[in-house]
Amino acid sequence: MSGNKSALVTGATGLLGRQILRAFERSNFTAKGTGLSRADGHSILKLDLGNNAEIQRVIDDVKPQVVVHSAANRFPDKVDKDPEGTRALNVLATRSLAKLCAGRDILLIYISTDYVFSGKPREAPYESDAATGPTNLYGQTKLDGEHAVLEEYDAAGKQGLGLVLRVPVLYGSAEMPSESAVNVLMDVVWKAQEDGAKINMDHWALRYPTNTEDIGRVCHDIAVHYLGRDDRKSLPKILQFSSEDRYTKYEICQVFSEIMGLNIDRIEPNTEGNDPNASVQRPYDCHLSTKTLKSLGIDVSTQDFIGWWRREVRAFRK
């Protein structure tokens, strides 16, 4: 591939977006990111995804061959508290971006989620063409975003340039633990050291924590693969990537306690599953099959969860 390829990553100040941007920067792409509150005007361009004119201006300035759309409201509980704002970002902004990109022959990789599936017992692993059925508003808005991307590219006759990449729960280098539903469990383990602490932790839903660096690499490899093909219309439009490491949240706390040498007797495992009265219902097991990515010859290996955290903790202690 020639050295004049350019990439644009939305949500590039977030947990995942940072690593996607780095993956493109490390290769022969000229890469820019977008952000709203933490843009530096150089590598991260300020962009309000709710403003169609701003999206158009940034795209026309950067002239990317590929856009990776990782910006989203992605915390289910926060989504429930702001359904209108979430739909504006996860669905409406996605459609605007897809329409602009399709009209300019730009490859768009839309980051979606395993929560588009119902996650009922014995259904997983899900293939990329399996029937969807979100259990919460977050999963529904991300599924609606998927439809928006594929519809806009179909309408423009640009099939094979609009792609969906579904990923599960994320972990990795974070500016603050709360950026990740996995990293934040390290804080929980520390909190469990306090006298009188009593913490209830889910020990029912199965999760497949996947490192953001691995997802960044896969996004780059997908872009290279699709941009290098003339027969894109025959290639799959929905792709899935996931680690095979499987844990409940309580088991992740156990891993952290072992690595840190901390006692977690004050953390109580909860095997009851969803509270039927809770506004956000979480799926039991949404494990994603990576068969479609493998069929393209794309490396689906991932970092070892325990090994990564051992190195992270060791580096932090130095």
Automatic annotation (TrEMBL):
Name the domain of life.
Answer: Eukaryota
Pfam name, any one? RmlD_sub_bind
Q: Which GO terms describe its molecular function?
A: methionine adenosyltransferase regulator activity
Q: Which InterPro entries match?
A: dTDP_dehydrorham_reduct (IPR005913), NAD(P)-bd_dom_sf (IPR036291), RmlD-like-bd (IPR029903)
Q: Where is the RmlD-like substrate binding domain?
A: 8-299
One record GO biological process: S-adenosylmethionine biosynthetic process
Q: Which Gene3D superfamilies match?
A: NAD(P)-binding Rossmann-like Domain
Gene Ontology CC entries for this record? methionine adenosyltransferase complex
Q: What is this protein called?
A: NAD(P)-binding protein
